[in-house]
Amino acid sequence: MAQMIKVATVTLAPGEAKPVEFQFSPMEARVYQVSVDGLIGSFSVIEAPPPLIEIIQMPLNVSVSFEPHYYYHGEFLLWQGGTLTVHASNPDSRFRDWEYDEESPGGAVGCLKGSRVHSPLIGYFHPAELARGGSESWDINLKGGSYPLGTRLIVEVSFQTRFTRGTEVIILKGLGRSPSITLTT
To answer: Which residues pair with 113 in a beta bridge?
Structure first.
């Protein structure tokens, strides 16, 4: 059944022309009929295509260095722990100008993990700069009781985040592991 959307009455003098415009925002995908003074036409409204989603695995370069900490107890120099410095870089900057989606499903989060550690999770980070093709560094305080001398560590840096441009959606999964490092004096 036809439904009248808009009506306009236009009176013209001989040889005169006046533009008449109508705007209509359809709410569903289907064929719509248009009738203007006995002239009939139609137009089709189709559903927008789903966003194009591509998942990209991105290798990260990860390096680790260690600076031991000592303190004097009387005349004895004792091992206290140290600072583990983790540096990660992403040589791929092709998404630098894309819109970074901080509210992406699953969250935009990065993770630092270490092997052979009391607790394998070292910490979390926000991956925006690393995902865009930059680099980040973290200083992590290791306590001597949890990380005795001779402990071998491999640090893993990973993240998952999302970028958009128009209807394109890119899910980036970054992963890199450091070479093995032994905590020594």
So the answer is: 121, 156
